[in-house]
Design a protein that fits this description.
Shape: globular
Helix content: 40-55%
Distance between the termini: 14 Å
Number of strands: 5
Length: about 210
């Protein structure tokens, strides 16, 4: 029997498009500088370090200002970084309210403080939401937890901290690797093909709504 539902954030609740951020950074930094820093970021695992709390916002912004005689302002880098975050339709908030009445509802997202700040600002401005975390029993953000999906440690962490029984818990994510890892620790996993259906359709298909 399912008692606990854990949702991912990106491409489950809020639409994301990382290519928009890469293009914004390319426009901001110039093609050559962007390509150089992109390769360096891949080598040094900058994205994961930021999202697992191993790198501060200041260090992240400084990375994109490095080796640049005319470095951009932090606010410009932040703006470009947030372009990945797209629509958060109102009906998905309604879904959270419905799920919260039937299950213990949780959030588990690979994210960072810059993006979460922007998501909350967006929800306030567009939907009047003043406390996004209130939709959930707990909202676990990777940069706070210190682990990053699909590392099995992040699932062990939330099960222990939340006092959840894996067999009574379902996790929904758009990334198959994250689902496979969750299943590996005993959680029921459901992959969300976000480009083919809305989360509402998936939840209805799985009998969770």
């Amino acid at each position: 029997m399912i008692k606990n539902v854990i949702l991912d954030l990106g491409n489950v609740l809020i639409d994301i498009n990382m290519q928009l951020t890469w293009q914004a950074l390319r426009d901001l930094l110039g093609e050559n500088q962007f390509e150089k820093l992109y390769k360096k970021s891949e080598k040094e695992n900058i994205h994961v370090r930021l999202e697992s709390g191993k790198m501060s916002e200041t260090e992240f912004f400084d990375f994109f200002k490095s080796d640049n005689p005319n470095p951009p302002e932090d606010v410009a880098i932040e703006h470009a970084w947030n372009q990945v975050l797209q629509d958060f339709p109102r009906h998905r908030l309604d879904i959270l309210e419905k799920l919260g009445k039937k299950y213990n509802l949780y959030l588990l997202s690979n994210t960072n403080s810059v993006h979460i700040r922007y998501v909350k600002k967006k929800l306030l401005e567009e939907h009047g939401v003043t406390d996004f975390e209130s939709y959930f029993k707990v909202a676990w953000y990777s940069h706070d937890v210190g682990y990053h999906k699909p590392d099995p440690a992040i699932y062990h962490h939330i099960l222990n901290e939340g006092g959840l029984r894996a067999s009574e818990t379902v996790f929904i994510d758009d990334n198959k690797d994250n689902i496979i890892s969750a299943i590996g620790v005993g959680i029921q996993g459901i992959w969300h093909p976000h480009d083919k259906m809305d989360i509402a359709e998936l939840l209805e298909r799985e009998g969770l709504l």
